[in-house]
Write a structure and sequence with these properties.
- The complex is a heterotrimer of chains A (about 280), B (about 290) and C (about 290).
- Chain A is built from eleven helices and two strands.
- By secondary structure, chain A is mostly helical.
- Chain B is about 75% helix and about 0% strand.
- Chain B is built from eleven helices and two strands.
- The N and C termini of chain B lie far apart (about 55 Å).
- Chain C is globular.
- Classes of the chains: A mainly alpha (about 280), B mainly alpha (about 290), C alpha/beta (about 290).
- The interface between A and B is large, with 87 and 86 residues.
């Protein structure tokens, strides 16, 4: 039994290692035949032409566009709402907000995608007078909404971790709540809020279904957020069903997965370091 | 500036800040209510006995979603059966056995990072590891294993946190009665931590039930004649059904698709709400 | 009397054990549950916190450990049921025997020891289960399954801890519904249910109101005819009221380990201490 407990404890490292190993193993062919340099620096994505062209840049840029829009939505709204919940509202409002945020986090991404299809695509089409409402903006806005729960939860934790003494000290000097918030609490929680934004970014960049349904999936370099884009996640989801197992295209899709894995790993690692440092700071 | 003017200005700033921040919070609420209302409004019309008990007809444009519901239930139960024992034991390891060293720190880091791995990457991993390398094929088993990897961090974290809330002297009281460490854990510590563990796990499993990307390549199919007959069978699933309808069925029937979305969201919400109610009921009974 | 003897290849240890047991029998008139500590020291990692404690804890009596906070009373108490083992990185040196049997060696299983030496903690800490299950926890751990046997045991121990009359009709009630004082008496019953020779109490009344404290003290007084009690207490009056023997410990600085200043009959310790430091502490000059 003890052995089993130890084995389960170590399993997280084993799984994470296995994920990396399988991604790398299956990417080898892509790295050898298509070349890392070529993949990361060319803009032509014609995986089924002969010979196939595997320039990942449009996909990476597509992901960045969508993620950028998502951050512009999720960070201001999420942090603002977190500050309101943490600093300006009573217990009851907090409880209600918590339930609502939990609900938002629980709604599956495919359902957000569906709502985007029904509501946002026509809206974007009309507002900007486009031929199609399937744009980076559409996907980004929905993704931003989906990231809001992450941003709020982590930001609120960061604000909550600021000792109450600090707030009382500021209030005792005659500061209003808002003065206390922007002079004392927000700076003190700054690194945690930064981490929250990064984790929101990580969630957005890895999100698949909503973008797949909303961005139109054109694998060309976009000139603006009002054009259709194809993200890295969307590419894997859309093309993996139609490739030859073990073929070059298959391998390239794993390479895309590897790129995603490395990006999100780096983001999470950085966010974790920031949060850990903050935890240490307030530990007495 | 005189003192009173400064105070007046501070009050005005306070008022504006409250309004702006409140508006942001309100917009979050509004979006959530809109999402909820939209799903219910458009989906409720589809919900009837036929819809819940019939098989899809005309590629899903007509008929019901019974095998789709069954597929999601099977996959989720399979995920639960795999995730709960492993996740709880791992949480026990971290809270009760793990030494304070760099290895443990590495395990914690691995868990946080697992939680951040994109779901589509889990899909790739599941395809390579479970479908192909392990030879399970596209099946409920392969999909459940994939979802297990994704859900484990949630269950581990929930377990560890719940165990940490159990006071130390409760463990010592059991040890001082001559109980072994293992007996102490399964007779005293785990029962005491059960509400937190179960609530956290249900939230994680509910999320797994709504995932599409990890099951895309590991076993979900668009259409099946029968309900799955075993763990190596392929399956239909609610989230995949929605995606497939919208993207590959020309002239998809919005009422039925929204109905499917409503069933999915209602199922997930019901599980979460039940877990929340049960937890607060337990809390009232058990306070440290 | 049964002399617990270890089968040891080392004949010397067996002889010492026999001699200790004979000595114990001589001092206590055959009652079991007496400790003998020889040059006991405790270190947390490299930090030596207790050194050179030598004392005898008589059977069927109440021995109080007193001293300023941080003087290692609780640490010494935990040596007696090897609970220090559970804290990790704690090293205990010297020799401790229970009825002549070495309890620190490999031959003594800490699990068996703890069935003979129970503990009651500072804060009432009933398990989150029913009153009955709390008391039955130890016996069940020992493998007793018979419902009647358990019921008898539960009733007997609840009577000993003076809780029976208050809970006899609600044994299935959750333990958390009891008051703090009742919970602590439940914890005493829980400790008694394994039929221990000794019960260690670490400031058992410090979290309780005066009336509950009085009830705990009455319980202790009633128990000592059947079990040895070692109690750590901050409360000088409490030590004077309930104990037969008192040991005074002191840690004079954080650099130096704590030690036993003196030990003796409680009456003498409180009226005519040998050491001036004991006198200062008892009369409230420090601590």
């Amino acid at each position: 039994m003890r052995g089993l407990i130890y084995a389960c404890g170590w399993l997280a490292i084993i799984i994470l290692g296995a994920i990396a190993a399988f991604l790398i193993h299956n990417s080898v062919r892509a790295i050898q035949e298509a070349g890392i340099g070529t993949m990361l620096s060319t803009t032509a994505w014609y995986p089924t032409s002969s010979p196939g062209k595997f320039g990942l840049l449009p996909l990476i840029v597509g992901s960045l566009y969508v993620t950028g829009v998502a951050l512009l939505v999720s960070v201001p709204v999420g942090v603002g709402a977190a500050v309101f919940i943490s600093e300006f509202s009573g217990r009851r409002v907090k409880d209600v907000m918590k339930t609502i945020i939990e609900f938002m986090a629980a709604v599956p991404s495919v359902v957000y995608g569906l709502i985007g299809v029904a509501v946002l695509i026509p809206l974007v089409k009309d507002i900007f007078a486009l031929d199609s409402g399937m744009t980076a903006l559409t996907g980004g806005v929905v993704l931003g909404i989906m990231s809001i729960p992450t941003v709020i939860t982590i930001s609120e934790d960061a604000l909550h971790a600021v000792p109450a003494d600090l707030r009382r000290g500021s209030a005792a000097l005659g500061n209003t709540r808002w003065q206390t918030t922007y002079k004392v609490t927000l700076p003190a929680a700054g690194s945690g809020i930064f981490a929250a934004s990064m984790l929101g970014l990580g969630r957005a960049i890895g999100e698949t279904m909503a973008v797949l349904m909303l961005t139109g999936n054109a694998a060309v370099m976009p000139a603006s957020v009002l054009e259709s884009v194809r993200t890295m996640t969307g590419t894997i989801a859309a093309e993996m069903g139609e490739v030859v197992q073990g073929g070059l295209h298959y391998s390239v899709l794993f390479a895309v997965g590897l790129v995603l894995f490395i990006i999100t790993f780096a983001i999470n690692l950085a966010a974790d370091l920031v949060l850990e440092r903050q935890r240490k700071r307030w530990r007495r | 500036m005189s003192g009173t003017a400064r105070i007046r200005q501070a009050r005005a700033a306070e008022f504006v800040a409250r309004m702006v921040l409140g508006a942001m919070a309100a917009s979050v609420v509004a979006v959530a209510l809109f999402v909820l209302g939209y799903i219910v409004f458009h989906g409720i019309g589809a919900i009837d006995w036929t819809f819940l008990t019939q098989i899809p007809k005309d590629r899903g444009r007509e008929g019901g979603i019974f095998p789709v519901i069954v597929g999601t239930v099977y996959t989720t139960l399979g995920t639960a059966a795999l995730t709960l024992p492993i996740g709880i034991l791992a949480g026990v390891y971290l809270s009760e056995y793990a030494p304070r060293n760099y290895t443990t720190r590495a395990i914690r880091l691995a868990i946080t990072n697992m939680a951040g791995v994109p779901s589509i990457v889990y899909g790739l991993f599941g395809l390579a590891a479970f479908v192909l390398a392990a030879g399970f094929g596209r099946s409920i088993l392969a999909a459940a294993l994939t979802l297990t990897c994704m859900t484990l961090p949630v269950v581990i974290t929930a377990t560890e946190e719940a165990l940490r809330q159990v006071p130390q002297d409760l463990r010592q009281a059991s040890l001082a009665l001559g109980a072994t460490r293992l007996r102490t854990i399964y007779r005293v510590v785990l029962p005491a931590a059960a509400p937190g563990i179960i609530t956290g796990s249900i939230l994680g499993l509910a999320r797994a039930a709504g995932e599409t990307a990890p099951i895309l390549f590991t076993g979900a199919v668009f259409q099946m004649r029968r309900t799955p007959d075993g763990p190596l069978s392929q399956f239909m699933a609610l989230p995949y059904h929605i995606y497939a309808q919208v993207t590959s069925v020309p002239g998809w029937n919005p009422t039925l698709v929204w109905g499917t979305a409503l069933v999915l969201v209602a199922g997930i919400s019901a599980a979460s709400i039940a877990a929340g109610i049960w937890r607060s009921a337990q809390r009232r009974k058990v306070t440290w | 009397m049964v002399i617990p003897m270890q089968l040891s290849a080392d004949g010397g240890a067996v002889i010492t054990a026999v001699r200790d047991a004979e000595y114990t029998a001589e001092v206590t008139g055959g009652a079991i549950g007496s400790f003998s500590l020889t040059d006991v020291s405790v270190a947390y990692g490299r930090d030596r916190v207790i050194e050179g404690v030598t004392m005898d804890v008589p059977a069927h009596a109440v021995t109080a450990l007193i001293g300023p906070s941080g003087c290692g009373k609780s640490t010494l108490l935990r040596c007696l049921n090897r609970m220090n083992d559970e804290l990790g990185n704690v090293h205990v040196g010297g020799r401790i025997t229970l009825d002549g049997q070495d309890i620190m060696g490999k031959a003594m299983d800490p699990v068996e020891l703890r069935m003979r030496v129970g503990q009651v903690f500072q804060r009432p800490n009933p398990f989150p289960m029913s009153i009955f299950d709390n008391v039955a926890y130890g016996p069940r751990t020992q493998g007793i399954r018979s419902r009647t046997e358990l019921s008898d045991l539960v009733e007997a121990t609840l009577r000993s801890s003076a809780l029976w009359d208050e809970v006899k009709n609600s044994l299935k009630k959750h333990a958390f519904e009891l008051s703090g004082g009742q919970q602590q008496r439940l914890c005493i019953a829980r400790a008694l249910a394994t039929r221990p020779e000794v019960i260690l109490m670490d400031e058992p009344a410090s979290a309780l109101d005066p009336i509950s404290t009085q009830q705990i003290e009455d319980t202790i007084a009633a128990l000592k005819s059947s079990v040895t009690i070692v109690i750590v207490t901050h409360n000088m009056q409490q030590a004077a009221r309930i104990s037969d023997k008192t040991a005074f410990m002191l840690r004079e600085s954080l650099e130096a380990p704590a030690f036993l200043v003196e030990m003796g009959d409680t009456k003498r310790m409180f009226t005519n201490p040998e050491d001036t430091r004991t006198e200062s502490y008892i009369t409230g000059r420090f601590g």
